[in-house]
Amino acid sequence: MKNSLCFAALLLLVLAGCHHADLPVIPIGGNFTLTDFNNRRFELSSLRGKAVLIFFGYTSCPDVCPTTLSKLSSVYKDLGTESQRVKTVYITVDPGRDTPTVLKEDLSSFRVDAIGLTGTKPEIDTVVKLYGASYEIVPLPNSAEKYAVAHSTTLYALDADGRTRILFPYEASVDDIVKGLKEILETRT
Amino acid sequence: MNTRPVRLSMFLLVALASASAAAPQQDAVVAHDAWIRVPAPSKMDTALYMVIENHSSQPKAVVSASSGAAAKLEMHEMKTVNKDDSMGKSGDSMNKPSGGDSMAMSADKPSQSMMTMTPVSKIEIPANGKVTLAPNGFHIMMFGLKSRPAMGDKINVTLKLDDGTTVPVVATVK
Q1: Interface-testing mutation among B35, B42, B89, with chain A (most A C-beta atoms within 10 A)
Q2: Is the domain defined by A2-186 classed in CATH 3.40.30.10?
Q3: Is A150 in CB contact (< 8 Å) with chain B?
C-alpha cells in the first residue's frame, strides 16, 4: 500500500508538470550490461550525456509494445532537433524469441532512435529488478501464440547522468512525455 | 373432428417463421472503422481493431472470426493486473507460473501494474449498443498471415455471432 501511494505520488508530480528544478531523483534503476541488437555487449553508462527512455517489452507483444513505440515515434517527431539528445532503450523480457536479429528488424519499423537489448534470463531479471519492473510468462495452450508475456508498462526517463527522473505510466500522452523530456534536458546536473 | 383451426395455425406459424427468416438480420449488427496494424517485420501476425454496433433489442456476441488472409483468428483482451493482487485471480491462464518465470517487485520499489493478454471465447455487444475493439482492450489477433499486408491494403474478415449470423468486415491496414 505504501509503495502504491509512493508511485501514485510520483506520477502526480509528473502530471502536475512540476518545474524541472523540482524533478525528483527516483531511487530505482542504475547501470547495467546486456547484449544489444548488434550482438555486442552494451553498458547503459555509454549513453551518459543523453536523456534515456527505458521500457521492457517483447516483439510478439500484440498491443502494448507497438502502441508505446508508435507513441515514441510521435515524441521524437515533436522534439525536433532535441530528439538527437534522447535515446530509447528497449529491453526484451522474451529472450527466447527476441534474438538480436529479431529486435533489430522489428525496431527498424519505428521512427525511434532505439537500441534493442537482450541477454540471458538471469541478466534480464537483474535489470528488471533494478528498475522495479515485473513480467510473467503466461502459457496459452489453446492459442497459436503458445505463450504471452505479461509485463509492466512503465516508461523510465533518465537524465544525462543515468539517474531515473520520471516514471511515465502507460497512459501518458505524447505531450506528457515531450514535456517531461524537455524538463530533463533542461536540468543541469 | 374439425381440423381447419389446426391447419390455419400451422399455416400462420410457417408464414411467421418464413417472414422471420427473410428479415434482414445481417443489418442488426454492423462493424465499421476496422483497421489492422502493419505487422512487425519479423512477424506474420497482427492485431485487428474495429467498432461493432448492435442495432437490435437483443444482446449479441461475437463468437469467432475468420479471414482468407490468415490461418487463424483469435479474440483477445488486454487487461491491467496489479502484481500485488496476485495474478492467479485473473483467470486460468494466469495461474502462478512454475520454474521461476515470475519477477516479483522488490519491497522497496514502487508498485507497477502489468498488462497481460487473455484469449476470450466471445465479445459481447449490448442491445442497442456497441463495443469498440481498440488498443488496451479487445482485439482480434490474426495469426499466420498468408502475405505481408502493406499500408492501405484492404482485408476481408467475417465475424460470426452467437445467433448464427455473420457480419462482413473490411479492414484497412494502417
Answers
A1: B42
A2: yes
A3: yes
pLDDT digits (tens, 9 = 90+) for B133-171: 999 899 999 999 999 999 999 999 999 999 999 999 999
* B104: nearest Cα among A138, A152, A1, A134: A134
- Cα A140 off chain centre by: 26
Q: How far apart are CA B136 and CA B79, in angstroms?
A: 7
Query: Domains along chain B?
Result: 28-87+111-173 (2.60.40.1890)
- Among candidates B112, B79, B26, B102, which has minimal Cα distance to A29? B112
State how far the Cα of B103 lies from the Cα of B93, in Å rounded to an integer: 17
Closest CA to A71 of A8, A2, A155: A155
Q: Delimit the domains of chain A by residue range.
A: 2-186
Angle between helices A174-186 and A64-79 (to 10 degrees): 50
The model's confidence at residue A63, banded by pLDDT at 50, 70 and 90, is confident
ipTM: 0.79
